Amino acid sequence: MISYARQTQEERPEAPAPVEEHIAPAPRVSVQAFCETVETAAAVQSAGEDRRLGKAHLKIQMGGMAAAIEAYRSAPTPNVIVLESDARNDLLNGLDQLATVCDAGTRVVVIGRINDVMLYRELVRRGVSDYVLAPVGAIDVVRSICNLFSAPEAKAVGRIIAVVGAKGGVGASTISHNVAWAIARDLAMDAVVADLDLAFGTAGLDYNQDPPQGIADAVFSPDRVDTAFIDRLLSKCTDHLSLLAAPATLDRVYDFGIDAFDSVFDTLRATMPCIVLDIPHQWSGWTKRALIGADDILIVAAPDLANLRNTKNLFDLLKAARPNDRPPLYCLNQVGVPKRPEIAAAEFAKAIESQPVVSIPFEPQIFGAAANNGQMIAEISANHKSIEMFLQIAQRLTGRSETKKQKSSLLSPLIDKLRGK
């Protein structure tokens, strides 16, 4: 039993993960839990259904420490063992016995009810990776297992943001590209836009890029996908923004399996702090998987009845599939089309039971000019009011505030000279 990943635990009721918290998904590992109470077993079972443990193979047994020792006398140990134990002496004696049948490299997480720093130090000395104070909730188990495989300093790396339209033609791609631009320029985060609409994607046009390679090369060659391969496919848009472009050609049919993009997303997570997925408006196994597996989700909707229905359906599905994540965000786009009956933002919010992040007005002239010129709104008009809205969305999705820029003045050169002296 090796590896030590310290995690401060406090007694707390089960609750959704904090908005600011980012827990990186666990890799493909085997996890076996030995529980003493049905409450803990239920929490571990619920954790196994969380998206961040989607690749882990979880098995739950009752019997606690005694069952674990007996099980591994004749069987190899998994990557992670989760043990529930109440008694101090029985726990320490049991760990000593478990060490005699435990394979090197196996990580052990202990769930106990004794809040004692001396016990914690004893567990660490014996090689326990984490000690979680009972009662535990699903998110406590998820956090403990996932943190075993992510360095503390890498918590902010690999945040996937999925942007999807509630209906075709609502401008979800335009919003996603401008939000990614704000993340890169105003928040100074390295970001990549992955255009997942391989047949009709517009990211290449919007950023005025025409790379010879893109995301299709990775999807159709999954055995070649690694960090170096993905780096060769990226097209540089700015110092902080890169593009994984779609081919936007119809010379082949783009029918994908449910896990077709997994290797691409995993590689991007390991190399990029922020990944913005431009997800096409279609419903298939892989689009559902991409949405559920994202760290944060933005739904773009227009203020009409079909968009309201679809947004409500997406909200309900995603909240049920992601019980330990915050609900998705949504914004209203193309608000105020002349002579078009619209649902008011207040009525939209009442039906969704959530307020929109922003409501972007219908301004076809500037948005059309940006699309035709291959530019972002900020490049067309630096003071346009929608730029602040894109930044607001970027801040909500990333949990970061705007990078403050020092204001220069006529006295700046003189002040710099005085500071130098």
What are the salient characteristics of this protein?
421 residues; alpha/beta; Rossmann fold; 2 domains; eight-stranded mixed β-sheet; five-stranded parallel β-sheet; 17 helices; disordered N terminus
Architecture overview:
This protein is 38% helix and 16% strand. The protein has helices spanning 38-48, 64-71, 88-99, 117-125, 138-147, 172-185, 203-206, 215-219, 227-233, 262-271, 285-293, 305-321, 345-352, 364-373, 377-380, 385-398, 412-420; strands spanning 30-35, 57-62, 80-84, 107-112, 130-133, 159-165, 191-195, 235-236, 241-244, 274-279, 296-301, 329-335, 359-361. Strands 8-9-7-10-6-11-12-13 form an eight-stranded mixed beta sheet, sandwiched between helices. α4 (117-125) links the parallel β4 (107-112) and β5. The radius of gyration is 25 Å and the shape is elongated.
Topology of this protein?
Layout: E1 30-35, H1 38-48, E2 57-62, H2 64-71, E3 80-84, H3 88-99, E4 107-112, H4 117-125, E5 130-133, H5 138-147, E6 159-165, H6 172-185, E7 191-195, H7 203-206, H8 215-219, H9 227-233, E8 235-236, E9 241-244, H10 262-271, E10 274-279, H11 285-293, E11 296-301, H12 305-321, E12 329-335, H13 345-352, E13 359-361, H14 364-373, H15 377-380, H16 385-398, H17 412-420
Parallel strand pairs: 1-2, 1-3, 3-4, 4-5, 6-10, 6-11, 7-9, 7-10, 11-12, 12-13
Antiparallel strand pairs: 8-9
Helix pairs in contact: 1-5, 2-3, 6-16
